[in-house]
From TrEMBL:
One of its GO terms (molecular function) is L-ascorbic acid binding. Residues 1-22 form the signal peptide. Gene3D superfamilies: q2cbj1_9rhob like domain, Tetratricopeptide repeat domain. This is procollagen-proline 3-dioxygenase.
């Protein structure tokens, strides 16, 4: 690195994980939280904790995944079997009726089986499906001298990532260590059908026809079940994007899900790293001969017909069919494909035709609607209130800085990664001290350091960090422009925050969500504001960008006095609305109580003193510019000496 060494980057990132954690019961920790704690422990060289947390994260992810799959499969089956509300299907209402029943079942199933409400989002799912936790875990096993598990963890990663040269080299190094038995190196994520298939093929080679049949039949049932679970896993959320109208939204979501479901065949076609394009069909190849050797001609012919339904031009199997047809006891009716194959191939053929139709027919250039969405926030920016409107000096309000879609992306970070009382040192968290400002609300936050760390370890896409940096830079530019700031204006601190009304709190409360204060001095009384510790006396300008309006209360207020008796103006938050002001006692401000829902905002403070500029911003930008993540850095070299 020309300007920033890896050591410095590591040092800055690792400090980001010293944030205050939620005061949670360990059993209720989310998959994301466990993964983050495990990677944090790895970077801090607390390897036993790394092993503990990553194993817990993997176990909980498997449980969550299986739970989601079971609910979706169960509810689909129940809704399909349910009695209809009307005997005639009019305008496809029966389709929607079944989906409504399916949805009700899914809600109840989730409530019954997932009390901790741990939703595994797309980012977490992708991370675990790509086996990323094993990139840390194999090293943590090695560091705690569990070399057998280290080898298995490396192998588990390689099964899905066979071209990863560094991991292949690492596995070779592990295999040469004392205490590693190659026979006991396993794939931690192997499906049951893999072992059954291997046992069946071994029995086949040994001419043990009974075991060949039993294992292959069990493998076949297990494979089909695994594919159904994989397909169920595809039925997750989807961003309707720029065209969320009713019919296109259904079609877009269906297409997204269908592409995912069609990918399940490829995902399951690996036997410990060896890709078998026709793995499902090959079961019937083994079965036809094994059944023939056991003189079960009907089952042998069924297996032949089933195989040919997948691969109708296979010359070897066509020759087998011709041989069987000449046997005296064989009838033409024997060559009927098995039921599960008929259904599977029909569904697969129909789905492929739908996807082919979509690919061939939906060819459009970028529409004006898409372009409008992309430009909406920036183009619609306008100053709506000046200092006079707001009753003071050096303050303004504006609208349209970002689009609703961009608001939702920042709220996504808030929904998945915030911590209680983040940004307030000494806060212990927990329900009793859920906010440093009021007992009636919960205060949550996440700063730029931790967002960068989440990108670094793969929990968050770099696009979210890039968006945050772009938006906050625009906030800075608007301040400079509006206040004619001629000196360099530096970022001092960036904080994504949400305030939520606690259950049971009164909607008639009079306390403030955030008391009247100044951002760079301690208010000691009217006209007295001391610029000394613990105030952030170096802050010169402040800006707050609001992200939502689906809550009650939570108005931003300017006040002429520290008690809030002389309110000068009140601003109701909404997506894209920004308030900017100088940070001193000339702009005393606060927030009225949030009485219902959750209010989220992006708060940024600026300084004219480069000594107090936010170094995390340079680190974050450097990470993005150079594509630096743990996984990218790890791939450069690894040393198990």
């Amino acid at each position: 690195m020309p300007n920033l060494t890896w050591a410095l980057l590591y040092a800055v990132i690792i400090t980001s994980v010293t944030h205050v954690r939620l005061d949670e019961v360990k059993d209720s920790e989310t998959v994301a939280a466990l993964y983050e704690e495990g990677t944090q422990a790895y970077l801090e060289e607390r390897f036993p904790v790394c092993v503990e947390k990553l194993e817990q994260a993997l176990e909980k992810y498997r449980w969550q995944r299986r739970n989601t799959q079971n609910c979706r499969l169960k509810c689909k089956q129940e809704s399909e079997a349910s009695d209809t509300l009307f005997p005639v299907d009019i305008e496809n209402l029966r389709f929607f009726e079944k989906n409504i029943k399916n949805t009700l079942c899914l809600i109840n199933c989730k409530i019954d089986s997932n009390g901790n409400n741990d939703n595994v989002d797309d980012e977490i799912q992708k991370l675990f499906e790509e086996r990323k936790p094993y990139e840390y875990l194999h090293l943590c096993y090695f560091k705690v001298n569990d070399v057998q598990k280290a080898a298995s963890a490396a192998f588990t990663y390689l099964v899905l990532n066979p071209d990863h040269k560094v991991m292949a080299k690492t596995l070779k190094q592990y295999s040469e260590l004392p205490g590693v038995d190659l026979k006991d190196v396993i794939n931690f994520e192997a499906k049951d059908f893999v072992y059954l298939y291997v046992y069946g093929s071994d029995a086949y080679e040994k001419k043990d026809w009974d075991n060949a049949i039993n294992n292959m039949e069990e493998s076949l049932a297990s494979y089909l079940h695994e594919e159904e679970e994989c397909r169920a896993q595809c039925e997750g959320p989807f961003d309707a994007g720029w065209y969320p109208d009713f019919v296109p939204a259904i079609a877009n979501h269906f297409t997204y899900v269908l592409k995912c479901k069609q990918g399940c065949k490829k995902k399951l076609g690996s036997l410990n790293g060896e890709i078998h394009a026709d793995l499902l069909a090959s079961h019937y190849n083994y079965l036809q001969y094994a059944y023939f050797k056991k003189r079960n001609l009907y089952a042998a012919c069924q297996a032949v017909a089933s195989y040919l339904l997948f691969l109708p031009d296979d010359e070897s199997m066509l020759a087998n069919m011709e041989y069987y047809q000449k046997l005296p006891k064989v009838q033409d009716s024997f060559f009927t494909p098995r039921e599960e194959v008929i259904r599977y191939v029909q569904r697969d053929t129909y789905e492929e035709r739908i996807l082919r139709y979509i690919k061939n027919e939906f060819k459009f250039s970028k529409t004006s609607a898409q372009i409008a969405e992309a430009k909406q926030g920036r183009r619609n920016f306008r100053f709506t209130k000046n200092a006079t409107d707001l009753g003071g000096g050096k303050r303004f309000a504006s609208d349209g800085l970002i689009s609703r879609n961009e608001c939702q992306k920042l709220v996504y970070i808030a929904n998945n990664f915030m911590n209680i009382n983040d940004g307030y040192k000494g806060s212990s968290g927990g329900e009793k001290s859920a906010s440093p400002h009021t007992k009636n609300e919960k205060f949550e936050g996440i700063d730029l350091r931790r967002i960068s760390f989440l990108v670094y370890i793969g929990l968050l896409k770099p696009a979210y960090l890039r968006l945050l940096l772009e938006i906050t830079e625009e906030m800075r530019v608007k301040l400079v422009h509006k206040f004619n700031i001629e000196e360099s204006l530096y970022f001092s601190y960036t904080h994504l925050v949400c305030r939520s009304a606690l259950a049971g709190s009164s909607q008639n409360r009079t306390d403030l969500s955030h008391k009247i204060h100044a951002d760079n001095c301690n208010v000691l009384g009217d006209n007295i504001c001391a610029k000394k510790y613990p105030a952030f006396h170096w802050r010169d300008y402040s800006a707050i960008l609001y992200l939502n309006d689906d809550f009650e209360g939570g108005h931003f207020i300017f006040s002429a006095d520290s008690k809030g008796r002389k309110i000068q103006s009140s601003i109701m938050p909404k997506c894209g609305r920004m308030v900017g002001f100088s940070s001193g006692s000339e702009n005393l401000h606060g927030v009225t109580g949030v009485t219902k829902g959750r209010r989220c905002a992006l708060a940024v403070w600026f300084t004219l003193d480069p000594t107090y500029q936010e170094l995390d911003r340079d680190v974050s930008q450097h990470m993005l510019d150079n594509d630096i993540t743990f996984h990218q850095y790890y791939s450069q070299d690894i040393n198990t000496e």
